[in-house]
Specification:
The protein has about 260 residues and is of the alpha+beta class. The protein has four helices and twelve strands, in the order E-H-E-E-H-E-E-E-E-H-H-E-E-E-E-E. The strands form two sheets. Strands 1-2-3-7-6-5-4 form a seven-stranded mixed β-sheet, with helices on both faces. It has a five-stranded antiparallel β-sheet with strand order 11-10-9-8-12, with no helix packed on it. The protein binds biotin.
């Protein structure tokens, strides 16, 4: 079931979403955000699309965005002054998505390292953070499958509607996400990483699980045991070694349970 196409976001966060550009259809809200940066848009400006014809995921994957079915949102966020805070933009956005979905779902949303939002162990959303060369603004993109059509026939993919007592409205989900982003990114930009690190550790489904790490054509299996202070996943391999997997390094981590 689809909700009304208009997304107005009447009650967004004070900074994130203070200005919202809604496009019924576009290639990718990440592209729109890049263009907004070139045209001098301010931090906090958000682009939302009803339908993306070329939605992007991480690692060059596409993000399927059928018309009217999902939330496709990109927000301009200042690049944190402290370099150690930059890798936490994606986790902070994933936590914001989880907090936004809480209260709407019958199962608790969780996170698969590093950027997948899960419901019932299946992917309901994801985060893509991009920093255009030379820009002082990062683009934090969040996609959430709201209605069933967004969760096409891909295995391991679900939509919010399947886990809600009442069909969700994309406008409500957008408002919730923007308010949570406002709160968490505000903390991050003030250098307050402790809360974000702790929330992420508690929400991660990956730690404690058997995983396969695919890197440069090689697959290593083992058990994810921790995340370190910069958010990298620590894996004890089946051969007795330890590897550190950084988000954005190109490595793919699959849960094996
Ligand atoms: C992933 O899980 O691989 C990240 C998916 C990110 C999808 C969102 S939808 C809004 C924004 N526009 C895009 O093209 N991608 C992000």
């Amino acid at each position: 079931m689809q909700d009304a196409p208009e997304i107005l976001v009447a009650d967004a966060g004070a900074v994130c979403g203070a200005a919202v550009l809604y496009l019924p259809e576009t290639t990718s809200t990440q592209d729109v955000a890049r263009d907004l940066i070139k045209r001098g848009a301010l931090a906090g400006t958000a682009a939302i699309a009803g339908y993306q014809t070329a939605g992007r995921g991480t690692q060059g994957r596409s993000w399927l965005s059928p018309p009217g079915a999902g939330l496709h949102l990109s927000v301009l966020v200042p690049v944190p002054a402290k370099p150690e805070a930059i890798p936490w933009l994606t986790p902070a956005a994933a936590i914001a998505a989880v907090q936004a979905l809480r209260g709407l779902t019958i199962a608790p949303p969780r996170i698969k390292w590093p950027n997948d939002v899960l419901l019932g162990g299946m992917k309901v959303g994801g985060v893509l953070t991009e920093i255009p060369a030379g820009s002082s603004l990062a683009i934090v993109g969040i996609g959430i499958n709201v209605h069933a059509a967004a969760a096409v026939a891909e295995s391991g993919v679900t939509a919010l509607d399947a886990w809600s007592l009442h069909p969700a409205k994309r406008n409500d989900v957008a408002g919730r996400v923007l308010r949570e982003l406002d709160h968490l990114l505000g903390r991050l930009l003030r250098g307050r990483l402790d809360h974000i690190k702790e929330a992420w550790r508690l929400l991660l489904d990956t730690v404690g699980q058997s995983v396969a790490v695919e890197r440069d054509g090689h697959v290593v299996s083992g058990r994810a045991t921790a995340v370190d202070g910069s958010g990298a996943l620590i894996v004890k391999t089946d051969t007795g070694g330890t590897i550190r997997v950084e988000a954005g390094s190109g490595a793919v981590v699959r849960l094996m349970n």
